[in-house]
Amino acid sequence: MTTETGTGTRGATRLGATSTRLGETVTRTEQLRRGDATLLALQDAGGRVGRGLRAATGWLGQTVTPLGWVLTILFVVAVVVGARFGLVEGWAVAAVALVLLALSVPFLLGGVSYEVRFDLDRDRVVAGSEVGAALAVRNTSHRVALPGVLDIPVGPGLVESYVPLLRPGAEHRETVRIAAGRRGIIQVGPMTITRGDPIGLLRRDLSWPQVELVHVHPVTTPLPPTSAGLMKDVDGQPTRTIVDSDLAFHAIREYVPGDSRRHVHWKSTAKTGSLMVRQFEESRRARVAVVLDLLATAYQEESEEEFELAVSAAASLALQSIRDGRDVLMVTAGRRARRRGLTAAITTLPTRTPKALLDATCTIETAPEADRLDAVTALTAQTYRELSIAFLVTGSRATAEELRRAAHAFPIDVVTVIVRAEPGAEPTLRTTRDFAVLTVGALGDLKHLIARGALG
Predict the structure, then answer these.
(1) 2-16, 144-158, 319-333, 349-363: which range is least confident on average?
(2) Residue 434 has what pLDDT?
(3) Domain boundaries, the chain
(4) Distance from the CA of 323 to the CA of which of 194, 195, 358, 394 falls in 20 to 30 A?
(5) Confidence (pTM)
(6) b/e per residue, 331-358, with b = 16+ CB within 10 A?
(7) Which pLDDT belongs to residue 279?
(8) Residue 227: pLDDT above 50?
(9) Superfamily of domain 287-455
(10) Cα 101 to Cα 105: distance, rounded to the nearest angstrom
(11) Which whole-number Å values give the CA distances from 284 to 19, 319, 326, 454, in the listed order?
(12) Closest C-alpha to 392, from 451, 303, 314, 446
């Protein structure tokens, strides 16, 4: 309906809106037709029904177990058979199914108010051991909490803990044992408590976001303190590099402008009549590099034990060098960025503390596309030039030619020791003009071979 006023003024209000034109005001009022209002109401009701159906479908999907759906379908089929064919057996089956479903509902009634505490006794262990955890579940509501099952994801596995009926304020305590058989990082959680009927027709889940990480370190063995000094490399030993200031005296030469007067040798100066200064041999602090081969073809196929032996040997060498106060560099093959044109990449593990090093070794794995050992050693030698000793740790399938190329990537003044991991093999020590090769069949062999090499 539209109303207009004279004298150049027209009203125009559309759903409460007004507009003004040059010299006149237009107001127009429109009323929704009854059919349009009914259509909007139906659309709104349909939206509410759809949301309700989606919520109900989601609730049924989370609450009814597969066994519950089977029983529900059996109930419907039994009712149809009993009504269509008049079979008493059909009605009997339908009655039993209905009774079972009805008896399962009370187990879901009431809220779930739990306070769950999960405390690990330690978050770092050695492979082959286990972790203890204290589990405490307390009913924080004012009503009795029905029994339930607490599911604790432990890595790819699952640990179940039965929570009994708890009165208001009551608490259930339990000790959970977590096996840490293999090196890696175990994620514990998030936990879920499930309430349901004894048959398993209906269930109700409640989750806790708490997640704990357990670092499973490789097995290591203590090595002789002189391991970093294998092949006559001692901390602070003079080198052939001549410098103007150090500890090891080398010779006397004539003074040149720029030399420090602190190093003037006055007796020689008095004899020769010209200023003479001392020269020194540079004393280097031993820097140890431990290079671990990650190429999968260097190890026996389907032999996880061989690679774990290599990781344990590399970690033992790096740990002993850290304890000896050496500068330690632990290197593995890195991920190559082919799009950037890189032919090789290396990754250095943190070696500031033993804990940081062992944590980093938890995630080391072989890869079929990893760089070859000679490429890794070549890049290591180019990047870190002040090295004294390089330990190259690889598997039993690495050929002699590959080992030779990897060892020759380092300068001639760098002592190179190759450690081959071969489970069950006889421990051997073989030396060449340029490098030494240690073959270890068990981790304990490394200690004896290092001692033999140091004594020899």
Answers:
(1) 2-16
(2) 87
(3) 34-105, 114-217, 239-283, 287-455
(4) 394
(5) 0.70
(6) bbbbeeeeeeeeebbbeebebeebeebb
(7) 76
(8) no
(9) von Willebrand factor, type A domain (3.40.50.410)
(10) 7
(11) 89, 21, 11, 20
(12) 314
